[in-house]
UniProtKB/TrEMBL annotation:
Keyword list, A-Z: Iron, Metal-binding, Oxidoreductase
InterPro entries from the UniProt entry: DIOX_N, IPNS-like_FE2OG_OXY, IPNS-like_sf, Iron_ascorbate_oxido_reductase, Oxoglu/Fe-dep_dioxygenase_dom
Family, as annotated: Belongs to the iron/ascorbate-dependent oxidoreductase family.
Domain Fe2OG dioxygenase: 196-296
Species in which this protein is naturally found: Thecamonas trahens ATCC 50062
Keyword Kinase appears in the UniProt entry: no
PANTHER family attached to this UniProt entry: 2-OXOGLUTARATE (2OG) AND FE(II)-DEPENDENT OXYGENASE SUPERFAMILY PROTEIN-RELATED (PTHR47990)
An annotated Gene Ontology molecular function: metal ion binding
Name the UniProt record assigns to this protein: Iron/ascorbate-dependent oxidoreductase
Length: 370
């Protein structure tokens, strides 16, 4: 049965739990197999017993509320189109998901790097090495001086958690424990070193009285894994089967975890990068959420693992090269046979999401040149 937007099917909650402490301290073969199965069939998990204090999560949600409450001029002063590294603020309707404007405000932060200048854009156009532009400086609103340390503290906590989860995932898939973490450089978020990449987004979904509205359209995430903190206003939905959407109800003290295209490619279609979307709140209150994208280093490359190591469930199968080219690799004009270059992959995602950024415009112009 398929359902029209935004009606959803009632319980049960379809999202299985990932108990971090239990899987680190006493991982039984049964629990690891259940986790692998959940990653394969659902691709969404609720992270519990993760050790991140609830105050830390409440604080980042409060930070989101504060940022979007700033005067519009303050927010415009750090607009994402003023960043050559896709960092900063965007108004409702400025971000595009699969060609459709979202109904949300956004504020994007990455690991801190030295600022990128126009000369770097010209060099990228000459060499084709566009992804390096993403390693740039954050933009912070002048009126919120305490924002940066708060956000960096949260990013450090979440990056650590993400890497712990990657180790658990490797165990669940019977891979060497450092398989996934090997593509991450560990370093603090606020220190402008050269290596490493991550993305945190503060999101505000305005309330929508009357007819229901999509806050962010259906999509799968682009990278490895996403850890999502939300307030207690629901709206997130997961496509559990083609055309069948279920609510992912908010639950305090937990994170929602989903997987990105890159991990799906790396595991040859075993780990599922599940489609999801957000319905705007129908109350008078906005909804705030903070997805943290646990991303590999920009220069990391990936080739799909041999599918013979995975037991695919009925209806699931290894990636088909042609379908993967259409769904994932065409995003940056690569081919399934190539190693997937993470930087190119995420750069293409940024261009698609923010086509009016000057870097997106320069990239498009460079593609048109003979
Ligand atoms: O706000 C949410 O709950 C989800 C956001 C999301 O899907 C995304 O940023 O990719």
């Amino acid at each position: 049965m398929t359902d029209a937007i935004p009606h959803t099917l009632p319980k049960p909650d379809v999202v299985p739990e990932l108990d971090v402490a239990a899987l680190e301290d006493a991982p039984t073969a049964e629990a690891l197999a259940a986790l692998a199965h959940a990653c394969h069939t659902v691709g969404f998990l609720r992270v519990v017993n993760h050790g991140v204090p609830v105050e830390v999560v409440d604080d980042v949600l409060a930070a989101a509320s504060e940022v979007f409450s700033l005067d519009q001029a303050e927010k415009e002063a750090v607009h994402i189109n003023g960043s050559l590294s896709f960092r900063g603020y965007a108004r409702v309707g400025e971000e595009i998901t699969l060609g459709v404007p979202d109904f949300k405000e956004t504020f994007d932060v990455g690991l801190e790097h030295p600022p990128v200048g126009q000369d770097a854009v010209a060099a990228a156009a000459a060499t084709g090495a566009w992804a390096g532009l993403l390693a740039g400086a954050n933009q912070w609103p002048a009126a919120a001086p305490m924002l940066a340390p708060r956000i960096y503290a949260y990013m450090d906590a979440m990056r650590e958690l993400g890497l712990r989860i990657m180790t658990i995932l490797a165990a669940a898939l019977d891979l060497p424990l450092d398989t996934f973490t090997s593509v991450y450089t560990r370093r603090p978020a606020g220190r402008p070193d050269a290596a490493g990449f991550a993305l945190l987004r503060l999101l505000r979904y305005p309330p929508q009285a009357g007819a229901p509205r999509i806050g962010v359209g259906e999509h799968s995430d682009f990278g490895m894994l996403t850890l999502l903190a939300t307030d207690d206003i629901g709206g997130l939905q997961v496509e559990i089967e083609p055309g069948v959407w279920r609510d992912v109800p908010p639950r305090s003290g937990t994170f929602v975890l989903n997987f990105g295209d890159l991990l799906e490619v790396w595991t040859n279609g075993y780990i599922r990068a599940t489609n999801h979307r957000v319905i705007s709140p129908s109350s008078t209150m906005p909804r705030f959420s903070v997805p943290f994208f646990v991303e590999p280093d920009l220069d990391a490359t990936f080739t799909p693992l041999d599918s013979s190591r995975f037991a695919y469930a009925p209806g699931r199968r290894p990636l088909d090269a042609e379908a993967a080219d259409a769904a994932i690799f065409q995003k940056y004009e690569g081919r399934f046979e190539d190693a997937l270059h993470y930087g190119d992959h995420i750069f293409a995602a940024c261009v698609r999401s923010f086509p009016t950024n000057p870097v997106s415009i320069a990239w498009l112009a460079a593609q048109r040149e003979p």
